[in-house]
Amino acid sequence: MSTTYLQIISNWTWEEVNPIFVAKLIVDLVGVYILTRFIYLKKHHRTDLFLTFFSFNIIVFFISYLLNRVDLSTGAAFDLFAIFSMLRYRTEGISAVDMTYLFLCIAIGLVMAVSTGSFFEHIVLAGFVLLMTYLLEKGFVAKRRSKITVMFEKPELVHPDRKKELIDELEKRTGLKIFEVEVGDIDYLKDAVILQVHYEET
Fold first, then answer.
1. What are phi and psi of 27, to 5 degrees?
2. What pLDDT does residue 76 have?
3. What is the pLDDT of residue 39?
4. Residue range 120-133: average pLDDT?
5. Nearest Cα to 193, choosing from 169, 80, 142?
6. 28/32 Cα distance (integer angstroms)
7. What is the bridge-based pairing of β-strands 192-200 and 145-152?
């Protein structure tokens, strides 16, 4: 058997490589690299997830490409869907944003593998995903808003009539552009109040 493998390897030529497969793989890898390196890393600064993003992308690409070349019955297709639907990627150190990027990497690999369009269409598909992700991440489509919990030592400002004064004081201390403040808890013994501060990211 080893001799047979050696003969196959020795007789292998570049002409046997499927150019469509190579083109799809190149667009897929370049798209995921741009997504993780120039969009995700610029904002979230987590290089430890690069292995996860690329691994899932490559695995999904190869599995989808190979299955797309095989004629499957309806029952077999539903069986595969049921198997994949039971998979859960669960870890304590991954947030909703990280899961979104993981899903994007999986989606790019899946679309590139099963798409039957031309090389230009593959580039357009990948470019559209990257462009929309970039615009959403930078806040061009909608302003990014976040929330933090603050312990505030002036409970006397927590009054509906002094809301603007409270927001001005919080903006002065934090430097954030605050648009809403919610009262979480008031401790008069410690003379402090827990606030949920909603602000716009810059």
1. -60, -40
2. 54
3. 94
4. 93
5. 169
6. 6
7. antiparallel
Backbone angles phi and psi of 177, in degrees to 5: -90, 95
- Note the pLDDT of residue 2: 46
For residue 52 the two structure tokens come to: 């996860």
Query: Taking Cα atoms as reference points, which of 154, 155, 163 lies closest to residue 198?
Result: 163
Residue by residue, DSSP assigns 22-61 as: HHHHHHHHHHHHHIIIIIIHHHH--GGGHHHHHHHHHHHH
CA 58 – CA 60 distance, rounded (Å): 6
CB-based contacts of 178, cutoff 8 Å, min separation 6: 167, 170, 171, 197, 198, 199
Amino acid identity at 181? V
Instruction: Tell how strand 177-187 and strand 192-200 pair up.
Output: antiparallel
pTM for the full predicted model: 0.70
Rounded to an integer, the average pLDDT of 182-196 is 84
Q: Per residue in 163-178, pLDDT tens?
A: 899 899 999 999 888 8
Question: Cβ distance 74 to 135 under 8 Å?
Answer: no
